[in-house]
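Late entry, evening session. Most of the bench is empty. Finally got around to the prediction I had been postponing all week. Sequence below, unchanged from the version circulated by S.P.
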Amino acid sequence: MIKTIESDADGRLDVIVSALTGYTRSRIKQLVEKGLVRADGVTVKKCGHTLKKGDTVTLDVPDLVEKIEKKDIPVDILYEDDDIAVINKPQGLTVHPAGGNYTDTLVNALMYRLDKLSGINGEIRPGIVHRLDKDTSGVMVVAKNDAAHLNLSAQIAKRTVKKEYLALLEGNLKDDSGTIVTRIGRSPKNRKLMAVLPEGREAVTDYTVLTRFDDNCLVLFVIRTGRTHQIRVHAKYLGHPVVGDKSYGYKKQKFDLNGQLLHAYRLTFTHPTTGKVMTFVAPVPDYFVKVYDTLAAKNGTKRFKDTVI
């Protein structure tokens, strides 16, 4: 979509264009970085480019619908309004297009099911405020407009969004509860994985053991920071990796699983428009419950449905 405006004052391009179009300055920056903004016919290279009153600015804004293929992929929408949607992502579904997969992702599903999505992250990641690993299931919030996206992102940055996860671990943690504080960065041995490294970024995770079996434990994790693979890396760091995690855990698994038993169970945040604090729970997947109940039967303990979380 080509959009042309005329500057009504002298000043910074991003400030003036934002005021005249309603686009956020972050969105304008993305367009500038991609060479999609011209001032009087000349491609703009910096958001701080100075406009004069009367200058003509042309924006070539990618059409998200044309860039991303809509696809009818099953996804459970827990809640939706004009600003946000809360979904329960299934295991095995990548969040956004990358690495050659541009058709079978959560974004493709959202494009099919929702009437609009925020454009701050560009045409590849519309609406995506935070992510879950491909083989991690559970609750996510997505933004349907830029204002909601900025508000939710600010909440995450301020660490006021509460993300609670359930994980079944190998073995038993020594303590019933605690806080893990490390630094996580890209693994020097395998760039696709993360590791606890001195030069990494701070990663803080709280944990509480909910159930103990002979050789496993069910743990509630609350992440205070949002590092890539944070819970999986911290579980490995404690010496008790997540069951089913072949990347950070045991290569030989006891159960026939398609991924780790890690589920984003509960998400609490403030609605970007109403200011109401909202909490959403994503039901634990059947394959997770099946493994839990198998262990419970062997140990003579309560089945998952009778477990208080």
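Two things to note before I forget:
The chain has a mean pLDDT of 92.
The chain has three domains: 2-61, 63-146, 159-309.
Will write this up properly tomorrow.
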